[in-house]
Amino acid sequence: MDYNFSQTEINIEQGTLAITLPSFDFDNFPAVAKALLQRLDAILIEQEPSADLHQWLIDFEGCQLLLKAEYYSASIWLELLILNDIEHLIFIQQLLSHY
């Protein structure tokens, strides 16, 4: 399935990038996450699923981020582990906006 990841909102202070997917279903997170990783050419390092929060540790060009999805808010976002890596998050937002 082809997902549209172009609707994003960055929070510089928190180091997060929210991704709006109109038809996001928490139960389909693994498929959505794999498509996003492929789009970014990022690598999955570790995954931690739970009943209401998925959390994947990923590597994007040497920058480690958390890819998270929450059941209750039906939201998905990227979160920096190191706030000084904000330029990577800005680049990801620009990259996703071109699809």
Automatic annotation (TrEMBL):
Pfam families: DUF3630
InterPro entries xrefs: DUF3630
Name used for this protein in its record: DUF3630 domain-containing protein
